[in-house]
Amino acid sequence: MGQGGVKQMTEVEPVEAQERVVRGLVAAGGTGLVSAGTGCGKTLMSLWTIDRTAKEEGVEPSDLSILVVAPLRTESGWRRAVSQVWSDDGVEFRTLSKRRKAEREALDALLRGDKPRGVVFIGWELLASVSKRKGYDARAGKVKSKASSRVLGGVEFDWVIGDEIHRACNFRTVMSQVLCKVKARHRLALSATPAGGQPVNIYGALKFLWPRKYPGFTRFAKTFFTSEPCYFGGPYSVVYGAEKRPGLLSRGHKARGEWQDMRIEDVAGALPPVDIRRVDCAMTVEQRRQYKALRDEAVAWMDDHPAVVGLPVTRDMRLRQATLGQMRVRPSVRGEDEWFFDACSRSGKITALLDILKDLGDEKIIVYSPSKKFQVPLVAQLEKAGYSCVRVDGEHKDEWKRFLDKAGPQILCAVIPAVAEGVDGLQRICRHEVWLGLDPSVVRCVQAQGRLHRTGQTGTVVRWLLQCPGTVDTESVIPRLDQRYADLKVSGLI
Description:
Shape: globular
CATH superfamily of the largest domain: Tandem AAA-ATPase domain
CATH architecture of the largest domain: 3-Layer(aba) Sandwich
Number of helices: 17
C-alpha cells in the first residue's frame, strides 16, 4: 500500500453505547476523554466524533488536519478505522517516521511548518525525540531535556488525539510536556486506564485536554486527593492516594459530556466469565536459598561470587525474579554484576506450568512473564518438553502473529508489556492464560488481561495465577496491585 493510501472498506456504524459516547463528545465541542475498556472501539468513536463535529461546523473531513499520537503497533488499526469511517471522503492517512523516504519527507515538511491535510500518525517516542531540546534545569541543578517551544513546527491542527493517554500520565516527562504543547483546536484522549497506575496521575490527561483549567500539579493534587508523607523522597515529599470524594473530579466533566466511560459489556453484551485459578508453587531448594539470602541480607552467593543488592527498589525486583527461577550472576562490561537466568535455571513455576499443560492437551495457551530475562529458561524448557513456542518481547515484537495460525505454535510466551497494547485476535483462538508473575504496573496488567477477555471471545477465559506463598508474590505485589486497582476503580479510572 502506498504512502497516504487507504484500502476501501465497508463503512461501519456505532452501536447504541458507542453512539452515546459520540453524541456526548460532539455536544462538548469535540474535546474530551474516552475512558473505555479494551475492545470497546475507542479508535472508531474518536473518528466518528471528529466527523460529526466537523460537519456541524461546515467543514469537509478531507480538509481537516488530524494528528494521532499512538503506540506504533496500533498504526494498522488506525489506518483501517480511517478507511472504514471515511471510505468515500478522500481522507488521506500518512505515517510519520524515519524509516521510509516518503515518511521522512512528510515528517520534515511538518517540522518546517507545513500544515498537512488528512490523518497524520506519529508514534509516542518519535514525537518526543523530534520535539525536545536540552536546557538547564535550575531546580535540578543540571542540564535536562525539555519540550521545545515550537512542537512540530508550531503547526496548529484541527484535532490532536492522544491514544493510550496513560503514556503521558507523568506530567514531568518530556513526552507529556511535548504532547501538551501540540497546538490544536480540539483534543481527544483515549485509554482504558487514563490515570495510569495512580489516581492522581489523571492530571496528565486533564492537563493535555484543558491546559488552562489545570495549570499546576501541586494545587490540583492537594485539592482532589488524599496524601501522606513519603520518607524516602526528602522532607517535603508526599504520596497521593485516593480521591477525597470518589468521582468528584469526573462529575463535572461527565455532566458536560467531556468525560465518557464505558465497559466492553456495553458494546459486546455479556462476555464469557473469567475463571481465576490461583496456584501455589513451591520454590526449588536453590530458589529458596537465594530468596532468603536476598531478603535477609541483601546478598546472594552465586558460583562463589557475592552478589550484593543495595537499593530497596532493586532488591524488590530481585526478590520477584527469585520467585521465577534460580538466578546466576556474571561481571558486565560496566563493572557491575549482571543478573541472568540460563536455559537450565530451575524453577518451581515452570514445573507447575508443565503440570497445567499436561491437563490442557492441544489447546492454545498464553504464558505471561514479568521478566524478559526469564524468557530464556521458559522457552528452552518448554521446547525441551516437546511444546512449540513463539516468543514475544522487545526483540520479537510481531512474533505473536504466528500464534494466530491454528497450525502455528501452541504456546505464546510473552513479556507482559510487549502485548499490553495493539494486539488483537488472540481471543479468537485461545482462552487459557498462565501468569508466572504480575507486573508492578496495574496498567500493564489490566491491558494484558484484555487480550483474551474481549469481543470475539466465545469461551470461559481461564486465568492461572502462579504464586509462591510467603514471598513478595503474596505479601507485596498482589496486595499493592489490589489496592491501586481499588483506588482507580472507585474513581471510575479503570
